[in-house]
Amino acid sequence: MTSTGNHGIPSMSKGNLGKSWQLRTENNIEIVEKFGACNCDYHKACGNNGFVWDEVKRDFDWHHTGRVNIAHEAIDRHAVSWRKNKVALYWEGPNKEHAKYTFAEMKLLSDKFANVLKKTGAKKGDRIFVYLPRIPELYISAMAIAKIGAIFAPLFGGFRAEAVRDRMNDCSAEMIVTTPDMKRLGIDPIRHEVPSLRTIMICQAPEGFKYGEGELSYDAEMMYAPEEHETEWCHLEDPVIMHYTSGTTGKSKGVIHVHNAMIGHYITTKWVQDLRDDDVYWCTADPGWVTGTSYGIFGPWLNGASQVVYAGRFSADSWYSVVDKYKVTVWYTAPTALRMLMKAGDDVVGRYSLKSLRYITSVGEPLNPEVIRWGMKVYDLPIHENYWMTETGCNVVANFYSLPLKVGSMGKPFPGVQAAVVDDKGNILPPGVPGNLVLKPGWPSMMRGIWNNPEKYKEYFRIPGWYVTGDSAYLDTDGYFWFMGRVDDVIKTSGERVGPFEVESALLEHPAVAEAGVIGKPDPLYGNIIKAFIALKPGHEGSEELKREISDFVKAKLAAHAFPKEIEFRPSLPKTRSGKIMRRVLKAQELGLPLGDLATLDDE
Ligand code: WTA
Q1: What pTM, to 2 d.p., does this model score?
Q2: Fewest 10 Å CB contacts: which of 206, 292, 566, 593?
């Protein structure tokens, strides 16, 4: 399906957009009115009227050739079209080093790396982890892995040894692509505990680096790799991406996405991000998380868009300079980052030209209305929030470019996605009544399974006929969804998803810790911070020093991003009679909320 453009309304430019929105208060809901058109067919995309997923399929080569591979559609078909010399990737490093790669260059490099992978014995269906900072090799690896029909499993750089071990062992991964530093921190300590791991591919190793058994140099292998590679043609239902993500219970789980997900990646990027061929798009998310792959790798390239990757540290100056330097037009970011930018103040905005920006979107946690209002003031643009999760593969609810934007709402369902608010039995609740946010299964990029864990997968469908998101929300009378919170114990900190169980397990390995309960504690900047309640073993005294030691212990073992920022020692923790720590009670106590039903509570 191609865009029908502006529906007769003059196309939006930053100039007239500035005049086209206004804030007004109506029934206590603030609405930004916009009178523009997005990159979609208004009636189909935004009116949810007559849209069929099948029509989207026509935009892919496989629809005509029968040969399926997401990497072919994202890179190779552009490399032989008028886009071959178009920049696919503008890359900027931590020290302002920069590089750019056209679609033709991305094709060549990913073909070569696909040959390298095959030379090591990697094949269709293998699980290949990519544990890299945001260097170009990450993007080349993603495409090469898909091209050989293997499964690309990105791993956030913040993870440390035990998290890496658990994820690799869960799916018996054959290979990991990494750097010397990350190997030292995250792989070496557990290498002998991952029997399936055959090959460690090391990127950007310095001269003189000592390669151990099964370790190969990316650079050396690429030097002599053949340029010609025949893409492995797959079935639409073959797995291609696996994200490890967290739930309430148990260790992190492998969410499986298949080639067919490209339909969702492609069309939601086009319509939710309103991406056009002359855009320069920047998704600030790390590909270790789903936003950084669906919208920071696949979605934009499936649309043939030029995207920016910035691998440096966050600061208001560095981020604005990226927008200014690359003339970013569409910017997909997250509430914590926006709150930090707001905190950095308005003056820093004035040091850069942000005139190129025409559209800003946000995801991952609720976006505070005050941030949107601030954005209008300093960027002269509203920020459009959208909603989805690792398991949904793509945006499912959004404030589309062409819709009146309700500040504080997640927006309306994507066409072809049926969303509802239901009670625990599946009865649809009327507008204004909070309940479970659920989706009708069947959209193309919905996960296809949880690796090695069909029981876990089934839990998502515990309300008959629906995929259960685990979020609570309500619907308003205009069909907009409003987020209320998680119904489980999953923690969102800086927009990153953390499972309390994994943090508790790491805490329990510390010699002083007898019991641990972990909750998300609301925080104005990070959304939530991780707070741990700890009962110490006899003979240990709680102290500030011990808190620091325990935090560092978790950081080194599990993740640099999932350690408890706050620790509170307690003589004992509230437990059920069967001995399960009641996080619900800890959270209620922390927030001064009613404790609810404590019938099963054992002590305290
Ligand atoms: C939360 C991130 C409020 C939600 C794409 C969801 C949001 C979880 C929003 C998925 C939003 C995402 N407002 N909460 N606009 N978007 N969430 O898997 O709790 O890292 O279930 O995917 O983020 O997190 P995940």
Answers
A1: 0.93
A2: 206
